[in-house]
Write a structure and sequence with these properties.
By secondary structure, the protein is of the alpha/beta class. The chain folds into two domains: about 140 residues, Rossmann fold (3-Layer(aba) Sandwich); about 100 residues, Methylesterase CheB, C-terminal domain (Rossmann fold, 3-Layer(aba) Sandwich), CATH 3.40.50. It has eleven helices and nine strands. About 15% of the residues have low confidence.
């Protein structure tokens, strides 16, 4: 059978089909109560050849409706909005019509707590808004925003708006031994002297939410130090450590300068720092 070369009439349909697929853009829904910020975000996303804004919502109620009707590839979600805030919208979307959600929120202490709560509800990632939220400042996080939105658009999400159970509820719900506990016993049999293993968890896009679902398996007597390295703003990591501690029996804290590692402790790398 003759093999047709590119440019052959019989190959034109295939070439057009491949080109169309390669040029497909990820469809973005922008959820933001500020009309000005909506335009800023839309301009940023539309400047990327892989992204196209297909809708804008000014509150959570519109976000839920547009997520259902437009079926975007990814949603950027503000937290503080009238009528229905970003947390309620995230919970409804992830429960009924799941879509990848990237939180675009304030870096304040209150904003950090709400953002981390949104990650528990199923949001994929977050980008912190600069403090004054003006055009120039948003452009300062443009590359991070575009990278995370492109990555989130490729994630296949499922219906999940369940907050991990606090430790007291976990103990009542099941006495079964978790995977981390079985791993701890195996390590304990192989350890000797004062040497103990160190577990390092490095996370990128989607990492905060994934770690929140992983840590409940670590036990108080886990015979290793656990280090979590996750790119976060400096004022997010202390709140992140406090939030993680609600769902695991292992001790959780931010790492400190010159601190000696201890078994049975999970260390969060402070925002804007490196560990060595």
């Amino acid at each position: 059978m003759e093999r047709k070369r590119p440019g052959h009439p019989g190959c034109q349909w295939l070439e057009r089909k491949m080109t169309t697929g390669a040029n497909k853009k990820f469809r973005v829904l922008v959820v933001e109560d500020s009309a000005f910020m909506q335009r800023v975000l839309e301009n940023i996303f539309n400047s990327d050849p892989q992204l196209q804004v297909v809708g804008r919502a000014k509150d959570g109620r519109e976000a839920v409706a547009l997520a259902k009707s437009l079926k975007p590839d990814v949603i950027t979600m503000d937290i503080m909005m009238p009528h229905m805030d970003g947390l309620q919208a995230t919970e409804q979307i992830m429960s009924c019509n799941p879509r990848p959600i990237v939180i675009v929120s304030s870096e304040s202490k209150e904003g950090a707590a709400s953002t981390l709560r949104a990650l528990e509800l199923g949001a994929i990632e977050f980008v912190g808004k600069p403090s004054n939220s003006i055009d120039l400042d948003m452009n300062s996080v443009k590359e991070e925003l575009l990278r995370k939105v492109r990555m989130a658009a490729k994630v296949r999400v499922v219906r999940t708006a369940a907050r991990p159970m606090p430790m007291a509820q976990q103990k009542r719900a099941s006495d079964a031994t978790g995977p981390a506990e079985r791993l701890a016993r195996a390590h304990a049999l192989n350890s000797s002297g004062q040497r103990f293993p160190v577990v390092v968890i490095a996370a990128s896009t989607g990492g905060p939410a994934a770690v929140m679902r992983l840590v409940p398996g670590f036990t108080r007597d886990f015979p290793a130090a656990v280090i979590v390295v996750q790119h976060m703003p400096a004022n997010f990591t202390s709140q992140y450590a406090a939030q993680l501690s609600e769902f695991t029996s292992i001790r959780v804290k931010e790492a400190e300068t010159n601190e000696a590692l201890q078994e049975g402790t999970l260390y969060i790398c402070p925002g804007s720092h490196h560990l060595r």
